[in-house]
Specification:
Length: 371
């Protein structure tokens, strides 16, 4: 290990005198997925991360969160808690970025002279955003955007991830019939691992997600019941949206993998969700987050339909910072996941500085759009 750190420091010193196109192959090799975490840790500790990330730092950054739990372990570490949110806000501010509203962020992207900024975005309309996140945001006067799928509010959403978590939480042996797999889930580590494995198996295949329904039924897991427990109602959302720190964005009607839908179905997903939110809240909904947001879940076709639906900007989950160049592709704005637990100081610093994208793209294009 010390040999590795020694070498990494030496490579970073070499780097200070070199343009990025001449990055040593050795360092590029270190950027492989298995070593990314280790290299991030070393780069942050040695202070080299900021220097490497400079080209990747951008004008702004959009941070993504989902649930903000009271007890992360009880929810199999699928979200973060209020303390972690507060630490991240502290790190954002320490990195020299102002936390601003969506409107102000998009304005600053268009103004080269403006200060660096960060957008806090939360997906899916979980009730804990009001209970656990909002008090922290109020303390720091930090604005947020909440991306809301219609189905979460009208209880029609097939939130398979909530069903799967409940199934794993409530049982010490879990059988996923369609996967042909069974998991021993007697403790937190094995429950969290099972959650990750089944989620990875589903990938972006809606049919696999749908197939979990038979297991939910067998174990008495009610997805609508879970939505009732975890998600905002229409009244909750109306009150939340009226808070001065809150902007509401779109997140489709049914939160399905868009790439598997027909063009007209994608169009319907966007327009009906936009109309639902605008009718309910009596305000314009001008931004969108694609469900899942990965390269396999959405792409150029969805971006074109989002523009035609009238969104000003739409967010993927391609990790990267926000650059003025994104004004040319406003329906493909990158966004970085900060809302998972546990999260090391190095992982957070690496994502804020731009180092993380440098690592996972092997020092490729800083401006994330389709990739
Ligand atoms: Zn979502």
């Amino acid at each position: 290990m010390s040999y590795f750190l020694h070498n990494l420091r030496r490579v970073f010193r070499e780097l200070q005198a070199q343009p990025f196109s001449q990055l040593p192959a050795r360092l590029q090799a270190m950027a492989g997925p298995k070593l990314t975490k280790l290299a991030e840790e070393a780069a942050v500790r040695t202070g080299a991360g900021g220097m490497i990330g400079r080209r990747y730092r951008g004008a702004g950054i959009a941070l993504m969160f989902h649930e903000v739990h009271g007890d992360v372990d009880a929810e199999l570490r699928t979200g973060c808690d209020a303390d972690q949110l507060e630490r991240i806000i502290g790190a954002v501010k320490a990195s020299g970025r102002d936390i601003v509203s969506m409107e102000e962020g998009l304005r600053r992207l268009n103004d080269p002279g403006s200060r660096p900024f960060a957008l806090l975005t939360f997906d899916d309309a979980y009730l804990d955003n009001r209970e656990n996140a909002l008090p922290v945001l109020e303390r720091y006067q930090a604005p947020m955007t909440l991306f809301v799928p219609t189905g979460m509010i009208d209880r029609s959403l097939y939130a398979w991830w909530l069903g799967l978590r409940e199934l794993i939480k409530s049982s010490d042996t879990v059988e996923i019939t369609a996967m042909g797999a069974s998991f021993q889930t007697g403790d937190l580590a094995s429950k969290a691992a099972a959650m990750r494995q089944v989620t990875a198996w589903i990938g972006t295949d809606q049919a696999k997600a749908d197939a979990l329904a038979s297991d939910f039924a067998r174990f008495g897991v009610s997805v609508p019941g879970l939505i009732d427990h975890y998600a905002m109602t229409a009244e909750d959302l109306k009150a939340f949206a009226s808070h001065p720190l809150v902007t509401i964005g779109a997140h489709t009607k049914s939160h399905r993998f868009l790439s598997g839908l027909s063009e007209s179905d994608v169009r319907g997903e966007f327009s009906s969700n936009k109309m639902f939110l605008e009718d309910l809240l009596q305000t314009a909904v001008e931004t969108l987050a694609y469900p899942y947001g990965t390269e396999k879940a959405c792409g150029a076709r969805e971006a074109e339909i989002a523009a035609q639906t009238g969104f000003q900007a739409s967010f993927t989950t391609r990790p990267g910072q926000l650059f003025a160049e994104h004004l040319a592709t406003p329906q493909l704005m990158p966004r970085i996941d900060f809302g998972y637990a546990p999260q090391s100081v190095a992982a957070c610093a690496s994502r804020l500085s731009g180092l993380h994208r440098a690592m996972i793209t092997r020092f490729g294009d800083p401006v994330a759009t389709l990739h």
